[in-house]
Amino acid sequence: MRGIKNHKLQLKDRIMAKTGGVCAACGKHLERQKVTIDHYVPKYNGGTDDERNLLPLCRNCNRQKSSRMVVAEDYYRFLGKRYCEMASEYRNELERPVS
Fold first, then answer.
1. Keyword Nuclease: yes or no (predicted)?
2. Which domain covers residue 45, as residue numbers?
3. What value does the mean pLDDT take over residues 72-98?
């Protein structure tokens, strides 16, 4: 049980590091205990728990986004360029037709 909890905390820390500990959408400082993890491509639209698809949001921004599809560069103003590119790359991989 401790291993799973430790793994989840490490994952949350890596996700928060994408924005330097602020909400990816509004820039509000996030506390580790209160951060919500958003799926860039919502599970409803085929998104997975791939780390490239996970971003830190405050509760309010996560509620506002809901399960809408957004453009990373437009919606996540506090997400670094590198992570925007990774998120967009992930989305493109999901949208490619399987041959």
1. yes
2. 1-95
3. 88
CATH at 56: 3.40.1800
Alpha-carbon dihedral sign for residues 43, 46, 50, 54: negative
The two tokens of residue 32 are 């580790």
Give the count of domains, the chain.
1
Tell me the C-alpha distance between 25 and 56, whole Å: 9
Question: Contact, 27 vs 64, CB < 8 A?
Answer: no
Whole-prediction pTM: 0.86
User: Exposed (0-12), middle (13-18) or buried (19+): which is 31, by Cβ within 10 Å?
Assistant: exposed
C-alpha span between 34 and 62 (Å, rounded): 12
Kindly state the average pLDDT of the residues 37-50. 93
- Residue 76: the pLDDT is 92
Residue 54 to residue 49: CA distance in whole angstroms: 7
